[in-house]
Design brief:
The complex is a heterodimer of chains A (235) and B (298). Chain A contains eleven helices and three strands, in the order ααααααααβαββαα. Chain A has 235 residues and is mostly helical. Chain A has a three-stranded antiparallel β-sheet. The relative contact order of chain A is 0.08. Chain B is α/β, with parallel strands linked by helices and 298 residues long. Chain B has a single domain, classed as Divalent-metal-dependent TIM barrel enzymes (TIM Barrel), CATH 3.20.20.150. Chain B contains nine helices and eleven strands. In chain B, the strands form two sheets. In chain B, strands 1, 2, 3, 4, 7, 8, 9, 10 and 11 form a nine-stranded mixed β-sheet that branches. In chain B, β2, α3 and β3 form a beta-alpha-beta unit. Classes of the chains: A mainly alpha (235), B alpha/beta (298). The structure holds fe (ii) ion. The site of fe (ii) ion has 4 residues of chain B, from loops.
């Protein structure tokens, strides 16, 4: 007998679709740790009303947690998986990755785990090999960095800025996108994250400048430009 | 001298009047604008901190001392199987020190299950085990949080358990010797779950109305499906449902210890917020005029 087990059962009915389906189809009769009376109370709620509530919350999670923070990835996932927001959320909450979230997953770590899982096994994501990099880009632009190095040069394996633009501005899902590198200088302060696109040469020099390494063998024009950009950012 | 129970403490508090529930982090409504430009439109503020109890100090300091306030905390998960972690408890005590409210509201819900944050307030499971856990939690919290807690009935979209909500609330209030917030929209949300949506006051006489210290009203949206209707909180972003206003008219004369009526107006414009307060104030003036005597906006 445990109240904990009852909350756990309801949690699974809300977020774990395969478990809910199996329960509703009679594939198992009671959740772990429940006695007869508790099992009956839980059984009584696993009905149409609760199904509707699950749908409503799936939409809430998309609308409140992911669309405002990682919109390009969130839209791209729906297109790639050919599903609506509620369906996407229900697939996601059913995954192990969803359980790695911190609070409302404001830093997107759980979503990143889900995208990685999909990229590794889902055919639908094969034509969108840029998805993990797109999310890494959106997370970094929102200030969720793996460390405190600031400013920093970040290299992406795809033109994630262009992909995000296509999805958000032109409402186009990039097909036949080829891998190419994108170098960004990222700078974070109270106002948010600024990004400046760099060429491969500029990125190489900028890294040296940021790490206080010798730049004598680098083209003086590029060195000067890097110093100027950094001064402007920090002022 | 024995310590007074939380109920006796809130019962002894002064009447606050008709107030607005605002989120301290919201830019709309902006509490500073409400205070500067609409001070005649509300008697007090009920201050929420959206679960982020840490980053409130500077904002709380912007509320002038002469604006009466109550505090609405989040994260104590009082209906959970065990006591919540130290963070939300210490955060609650800290924010009480900053605001000095006569009481602190907390939902009868959990926001974490097995430590995992949920996307909404999971309302109390309505059975004896949950009553026992809730009473134990509230008693433990009373020892660690200086100001009295006032538990509020959370919104229900589906109800789990074999008890009626009002029996659950009575047993919690009597067991933990505390007062209650009755959220009228949330009452209706429960009635919609148990097939009594057309009688929002069904069984209301079974609730110990002497325990109701504060009443909440808020905007809501109703989701219809082929099997019924589901209540969804909108707070300031919608009109107060007629069912909630009906409950207010029904209950106003029957709440001997009522100290505060809060209209939850997150996301409303400042003008819409005071308009809803005005709508409620007119009902109070008509049905219980003496109650408003002596409060800020009479
Ligand atoms: Fe409320």
């Amino acid at each position: 007998m445990s109240l904990e087990a009852q909350y756990r059962a309801i949690y699974q009915l809300m977020y774990k679709r395969r478990t809910r389906d199996a329960f509703q189809q009679g594939k198992f009769r009671r959740f772990d740790g429940l006695d007869d009376a508790e099992a009956e109370q839980v059984c009584n709620v696993a009905n149409l009303r609760q199904d509707v509530v699950v749908q409503l919350h799936a939409n809430d999670i998309g609308t409140n947690w992911y669309m405002p923070r990682f919109p390009a990835t969130w839209i791209a996932l729906q297109v790639a998986l050919d599903c609506d927001q509620a369906e996407l959320t229900m697939r996601f909450t059913d995954s192990a990755a969803f359980e790695t979230r911190l609070n409302d997953d404001s830093d997107g770590r759980a979503l990143a785990g889900f995208v990685d899982e999909l990229a590794a096994r889902d055919e639908a994501l094969k034509s969108a090999g840029w998805m993990p990099e797109l999310l890494r880009y959106e997370r970094m632009v929102r200030g969720h960095w793996p460390d405190e190095v600031n400013p920093r040069v970040e290299a992406f394996g795809w033109d994630v800025g262009g992909i995000a633009d296509a999805l958000l501005e032109k409402e186009l899902f990039p097909v036949d996108e080829v891998a190419s590198s994108l170098h960004l200088l990222l700078y974070r302060d109270d106002a948010g994250v600024s990004e400046i696109a760099l060429s491969a040469d500029q990125a190489r020099v900028m890294r040296k400048v940021l790490n206080h390494l010798p730049v004598d063998d680098e083209p003086p024009k590029i060195v000067a430009k890097c110093r100027r950009v950094l001064n402007q950012l920090r002022s | 001298m024995a310590e007074l129970s939380p109920f006796k403490r809130v019962k002894a508090a002064a009447v606050m009047g008709v107030g607005l529930g605002i989120d301290i982090f919201d830019s709309q409504p902006d509490f500073r604008v409400l205070i500067d430009k609409h001070r005649g439109g509300f008697d007090f503020l009920e201050v929420y901190s959206r679960g982020d109890w840490e980053h409130t100090d500077d904002l709380f300091a912007e509320i002038p001392d002469d604006v009466p306030r109550t505090y609405h905390h989040e994260g104590l998960d009082p209906v959970g199987p065990k006591l919540c972690p130290d963070g939300p408890i210490e955060g609650c005590a800290k924010n009480q020190r900053l605001l000095n409210p006569p009481w602190t509201v907390e939902e009868l819900a959990v926001r974490h299950i097995d430590g995992k944050y949920t996307d909404f307030f999971f309302p109390a499971i309505l059975n004896k085990q949950c009553v026992q856990a809730t009473v134990a939690n509230l008693k433990a919290l009373e020892k660690r949080i200086p100001g009295p807690l006032l538990p509020e009935n959370a919104p229900y979209e589906f109800a789990v358990g074999d008890m009626h909500l009002f029996d659950f609330m009575n047993e919690v209030a009597h067991g933990a010797e505390c007062g209650l917030v009755l959220d009228l929209g949330h009452v209706w949300s429960y009635q919609l779950c148990v097939g009594k949506g057309d009688q929002p006051d069904d069984r209301i006489e079974s609730l110990d109305l002497s325990r109701i210290i504060e009443v909440h009203l808020a905007g809501a949206r109703i989701e219809e499906y082929e099997g019924g209707r589901i209540y969804r909180d909108l707070h300031g972003a919608g009109p107060i449902p007629e069912e909630s206003m009906f409950l207010l008219r029904e209950l106003l004369p029957k709440l001997p210890n009522l100290k505060a009526i809060t209209i939850e107006v997150e996301d409303a414009t400042e003008a819409a917020a005071v308009e809803q307060a005005q709508q409620v104030r007119e009902v109070v003036r008509r049905l219980r005029p003496a109650w408003l005597e002596g409060v800020h906006v009479s």
